[in-house]
Design a protein that fits this description.
Order of helices and strands: HH
Number of helices: 2
Helix content: over 70%
Distance between the termini: 81 Å
Length: 98
């Protein structure tokens, strides 16, 4: 039980410290509130653009991998089908010989 309360206290102190640090940083910032808000909005948009671009790249790569996987599976199916047909032919030929 003391481990759980200790972890809870640590989390509470961490959140409290982070909140106080953020508030202090905003109060002591060298820019005005309007400038700071504009900067935050600008950085948030840049971050959103980066995330969107990376997500698009990942989606494109994933699509490419999926298509390549489908091609490989189809090749394997074709080879397996050809091998089965060859086996059937060989079986029929041997059966006819006997």
């Amino acid at each position: 039980m003391s481990d759980q309360s200790s972890a809870g206290e640590k989390a509470l102190y961490f959140i409290l410290g982070a909140t106080l640090g953020a508030a202090t940083a905003l109060l002591l910032a060298p820019r005005s509130g309007v400038e700071t808000r504009k900067l935050i909005i600008s950085k948030a948009r840049e971050g959103a653009d980066v995330v969107t671009t990376r997500a698009r790249n990942v989606a494109e790569k994933t699509t490419g991998y999926v298509e390549r996987g489908k091609e490989i599976i189809q090749q394997q199916r074709d080879q397996l089908g050809a091998a089965i047909e060859a086996g059937k032919r060989a079986y029929r030929e041997e059966k006819e010989k006997a």
